[in-house]
Amino acid sequence: MGWLVEALVASILLSLCFAITESAPKSALVTKLPGFNGTFPSKHYAGYVAIDKERNKNLWYYFVESERNASRDPVVLWLNGGPGCSSMDGFIYEHGPFNFERKKTEEPRLHLNRYSWSKVSNIIYLDSPVGVGYSYSKNKSDYTTNDAETATDTYAFLIEWFKMFPEFQSNPFYISGESYAGIYVPTLASEVVKGNKNVMRKEKRNETSTNHKKVTKPVINFKGYLIGNGVTDQVFDGNALVPFVHGMGLISNELFEETKASCKGHYYNENNGNNECSASLAKITDDVQPLNVYNILEPCYHKTSMTAFDFGSLPPSFLNLGQTERPLPVRKRMFGRAWPLGQAVRPGIVPNWPQILADSSVPCIDDRVATAWLNDPAVRKAVHAKEKSEIGRWILCTNQIVYTHDAGSMIRFHRNLTLSGYRALIFSGDHDMCVPYTGSEAWTKSMGYKVVDEWRPWMSNDNVAGFTQGYANNLTFLTVKGSGHTVPEYKPREALDFYSRFLAGEKM
Ligand SMILES: *[C@@H]1O[C@H](CO)[C@@H](O)[C@H](O)[C@H]1NC(C)=O
Ligand SMILES: *[C@@H]1O[C@H](CO)[C@@H](O)[C@H](O)[C@H]1NC(C)=O
Ligand SMILES: *[C@@H]1O[C@H](CO)[C@@H](O)[C@H](O)[C@H]1NC(C)=O
Ligand SMILES: *[C@@H]1O[C@H](CO)[C@@H](O)[C@H](O)[C@H]1NC(C)=O
Ligand SMILES: *[C@@H]1O[C@H](CO)[C@@H](O)[C@H](O)[C@H]1NC(C)=O
Ligand SMILES: *[C@@H]1O[C@H](CO)[C@@H](O)[C@H](O)[C@H]1NC(C)=O
Questions:
Q1: Per-residue pLDDT tens for 208-263?
Q2: Residue 438 domain flag
Q3: pLDDT > 90 in the chain, percent
Q4: Which residues lie with the beta carbon below 6 Å from any ligand 5 atom?
Q5: Is the beta carbon of 313 within 6 A of some atom in ligand 1?
Q6: Residue 409 known to be catalytic
Q7: What was the pLDDT predicted at 399?
Q8: What is the number of structural domains in the chain?
Q9: Which structural domain range is residue 242 located in?
Q10: 432 catalytic, yes or no?
Q11: GO: which molecular function terms (predicted)?
Q12: Is 179 a known active-site residue?
């Protein structure tokens, strides 16, 4: 009985302690945004969190409260990948509260997004690591970084953020992201779990001493995570392309059989001296190279300068491919290559996007709305970002960080997390050739968990929206039919559906 009373007293003291510290910082409130003249459906906050005051390392976030019930709904952290890409990609192009309409001469116009993930959750868009988006450090040597440091820095951010927003400490918390965030999410989740253990251990030790004010770190109410078309494991991801392009009808059956035989089913096998296999893989690359790697259904314009590009010259049927219910068109041009085709992220330095672009000369990027809007001094002021003169221009995917992938395969992280009771949704736009679903399907299966919900269609708006397979330990794999790499951009309605169901713990 004694421990119960003690726990009660501790929790009362704790809540008192946090009650007298500040709640949501008023100075971070975003009251208006250039391009939008309506009323915000919920409260928005933005600003910097100092994760290392001495070195002056600052991560910038944009926080959107839930439009339903902010005090009850979960808090979700969103991370875009790269490495080096700003999470404002998610905010502007994927599941943010606004749809951005590009205007030829004036600035973008913002319309409310009926499929915003803020319909059912509080959501934090974080520019991470420092050097990305609006996040910065006063010491540029901090722009040389890696997986481990990014995870500890992001955990430091979360701790400070929850101290600034104590009213959200008891909400369920989830971590989400896509692409290279397939590395960010599990490594951060592990950091959170470890950090929570340490905090609780310290609290317990401190129970006997009555000095409860010493408890400075909040416990994060972490429940689970979501990853879309995420990088996971170099072998699984590396082997994914050949079965994908075959299944999609992008190579001939003969070439598939030839490749299977010459590579003995192992397509990810660098410099193994197997010339026959290399030759088959080269043939496949020639076949699929001209496609839009992010969505094989979408056009990709090579050797077309950005300014010379004209949507009007496209056959309308092209523009309608993969169409779904959304008020504004998806981006038609993006980076033509994320990283060299068929090569998963390997240990070591990950080339940055401008370097890759320079190599492959694919001027296939559209970041115009985001770049114009986020570099407008009025917008930067409204979202409490430092001025251009201080931290430079906002760029969708920066080349100022030097990033080393050093965390290895994510599979052991997924195993630890799912076996510890954290729920995981691994979703995949099934027309993405950058991180094809075939890899995610294979590695989730390789975990060896019992199938508890056998492969079946899942529905959205009375239609098949994709397929799902559920495993024991709350691991769910889900495809989104006809979607490219950035699922909520291509399929916003379907994305909001599976997102809501996952957060609510409902069946897909
Ligand atoms: C807001 O902008 C829309 C066009 O985007 C316009 O139709 C509407 O009249 C404007 N409303 C106000 C209050 O200015
Ligand atoms: C929001 O959720 C809280 C906590 O569950 C509840 O007390 C409150 O009544 C809810 N508010 C509304 C408007 O539903
Ligand atoms: C930046 O950090 C590096 C590594 O910690 C340090 O050696 C260097 O002196 C710092 N530079 C400045 C200008 O503070
Ligand atoms: C109590 O908590 C503080 C802050 O977490 C810590 O520094 C201190 O070592 C703890 N005291 C004991 C006796 O463990
Ligand atoms: C998995 O959990 C074990 C036991 O808690 C721990 O020692 C190990 O470091 C964890 N591995 C990863 C990759 O998180
Ligand atoms: C799965 O998650 C639910 C909560 O949604 C939890 O009650 C259940 O214990 C979890 N199952 C496992 C095997 O972790």
A1: 665 555 557 899 999 999 999 999 999 999 999 999 999 999 999 999 999 999 99
A2: no
A3: 68
A4: 190, 412-413, 416
A5: no
A6: no
A7: 84
A8: 1
A9: 237-367
A10: yes
A11: acyltransferase activity, transferring groups other than amino-acyl groups; serine-type carboxypeptidase activity
A12: yes
